[in-house]
What we know:
Elements: E1 2-5, H1 13-19, H2 26-33, E2 38-50, E3 53-66, E4 69-82, E5 86-96, H3 99-119
Antiparallel strand pairs: 1-5, 2-3, 3-4, 4-5
Amino acid sequence: MIAVExxxxxxxxxxIDQNTTExxxxxxxxxxxxxxxxxxxVRSIGRGLLAGHPAQxxxxxxxxxxxxxxxxGVMTTTSAAMAPNVAWSVGCGGLGKTLAEANKAFSHWQSDxxxxxxxxxxx
Length: 123
């Protein structure tokens, strides 16, 4: 989970929700994720909820280099902005030595991965 505070901004939740109605494109998201991961491919982008707040949900595959070799992952991230000025992002996924192994791990936990952000509580 990542939380980022935006200093100097003090928007209401209604203003935040109005400003976040447009989803990012796959190309934009792949470019952003490519800063941290290799071989990024966005599988889907949609809407969801994070702790009851409107959120963007991105499912993607990626790889990272490690001393032991390439590791693959399939992940879903759920991101939302909340008043007064904090953005939250929660991610869950599956890893493997190959993309096929990562897909299998993700598939095994997929229902839990999909439900986790909807049950998240922020105070």
